[in-house]
Specification:
Rossmann fold, 2 domains, 6-stranded parallel beta sheet, globular
């Protein structure tokens, strides 16, 4: 499988991945998160797990199961860790723990290395049996609600190490901390090359015109993604440039607010026939790929963001991206070179119009964007980094042999 990336991913990453996989051959590697479908974590793991298996590592992926109250509470935790004010009672925290205890009784947690993703399954560490345990935080906890952070951190201190996507997300913890940005898989259906016929097929399926400029945002229907703000920016642009707006998202079992936000978006869109709101079924990767390739400009107008992999996805397809200057997005976009960073609705509208009116600039920006992703945000680099953390933590305090 790794040989398929030759000529696509940097050669140095491929060499290091092979060497690290030889070291960990037949070792057990476990990932645990909160959903097998929907969201960036699941999207990465669905490609990473078979990749590592093909290279000889005994890797598994589990998702914890919970009821509606559990996911309502963990959504509040997610929001509070990113700085919102939420009310989370002692009873809610107890339910959070009880759900994890129940999952621990049915999961096989035996592994040489375990990565627990985000706050939902963080208490599982109390049931660790062996091996290295690492907490992987995909969200920005740089300015959290103190009470909520303290409740999560009491579990975090039981881990051997933690991983964050961006250095400014991290908080000082009494453990080794690592910075590993997420990644995209260039060979996945969501990112592979498509023929013109495949793109046209998707546009026809959703009754989208192929001869008009398209503004596209692909994201969960989440207030932090500001889909209503995207509609406002589109309306500003529409005064001067003929265009359509496509807002495409998929459901996620761990996000109970999505239906409410979707209704808010529909209300904001009103009866405008040029606003297309698409609720795509899980694993609509080829359609998302085609929409991104058909778009004139891709937007990710997040107000808060963990990383925002849709930015790298669009950049990989040579598209100029206009995105909120929050979270991990500035790590992906070099302003004015690989895309534009914005701070407001009016700023987003201005940059969208600039791209519409300067096709040669847009083309150059797209070319720079693709090369930037190639060198920084492909799955081969991500796997290299995860295995490197495992190697580093396992050999902490010892003489490390040369790879």
């Amino acid at each position: 499988m790794i040989d398929q990336y030759t000529g696509i991913a940097p050669q140095g990453d491929l060499i290091l991945v092979k060497k690290l996989c030889n070291i960990f051959r037949d070792k057990k590697f476990l990932h645990v998160n909160s959903t097998l479908a929907g969201g960036g974590v699941a999207e990465i793991l669905v490609r990473m797990v078979p990749f590592l298996k093909d290279l000889g590592i005994d890797v598994r992926w589990e998702a914890i199961e919970g009821d509606g109250d559990f996911f309502d509470m963990t959504k509040k935790v997610h929001n509070a860790l990113q700085g919102d004010t939420e009310i989370i009672t002692d009873a809610m925290w107890q339910h959070h723990y009880d759900i994890n205890k129940k999952n621990a009784s049915t999961m096989n947690l035996e592994a040489d290395a375990v990565i627990i993703h985000d706050p939902q399954p963080v208490p599982l560490v109390e049931y660790r049996k062996e091996g290295i345990w690492i907490w992987r935080c995909h969200i920005d906890i740089s300015n959290p609600m103190p009470q909520v952070y303290n409740n999560v951190e009491r579990y975090c201190r039981l881990y051997d190490a933690s991983i964050f996507s961006v250095s400014k997300f991290a908080k000082p913890m009494d453990m080794d901390e690592f910075i590993i940005p997420p990644s995209i898989d260039p060979l996945a259906d969501k990112n592979r090359d498509l023929t013109a016929e495949e793109v046209a097929e998707t546009l026809a399926k959703f009754e989208l015109p192929a001869d008009r400029k398209m503004i596209l945002q692909v994201s969960r229907f989440d207030r932090f993604k500001d889909p209503v703000g995207v509609i406002e920016a589109y309306r500003n642009v529409k005064k001067y440039n003929d265009c359509i707006l496509v807002l495409a998202g998929s459901p996620a079992t761990d996000d109970p607010e999505a239906d409410i936000v979707l209704e808010e978006v529909k209300e904001a869109a009103g009866t405008d026939p040029d606003i297309h709101i698409l609720m795509l079924p899980p694993f609509s990767n080829k359609d998302i790929n085609a929409l991104q390739r058909a778009a004139t400009v891709v937007v990710q107008k997040s107000l808060k963001e963990g990383f925002g992999l849709t930015v790298s996805e669009a950049m990989w397809k040579g598209k100029p991206v206009v995105a909120g200057a929050v979270g991990g997005i500035p790590l992906q976009i070099e302003h004015g070179v690989t895309g534009f960073l914005v701070h407001s609705v009016h700023g987003a509208a201005f940059r969208i119009r600039q791209i519409f009116n300067n096709p040669e600039m847009a083309r150059r920006m797209g070319e720079e964007a693709k090369e930037y992703v190639r060198n920084n945000f492909l799955i081969t680099r991500h796997i290299r980094d995860y295995l490197g953390v495992w190697y580093s933590v396992q050999n902490k305090g010892r003489h490390i042999l040369e790879l």
